[in-house]
Sequence to fold (78 residues):
Amino acid sequence: VPTIAIAYQEKSNQFMKSFGVRENSINLKELEEEAFMEIFDRVISNPEKYSLKERESLDEIVAKAEENNKLLFDLIKK
Fold:
């Protein structure tokens, strides 16, 4: 499902960047109807494009999450 983020923290922007769709994130402090609707129109007009971009990023994100889990469990075992 193509995603739009209303970012209240930089973490939200980084999350969207990791999926290759940072352009679909808008900062809460900058939220205005016109800017949001530009993002919405872009995403709703290109759902296959954004779904594909997100799917293509998933394997790398899962690998990073697994690596983080391993690091965490290695620290806990010490």
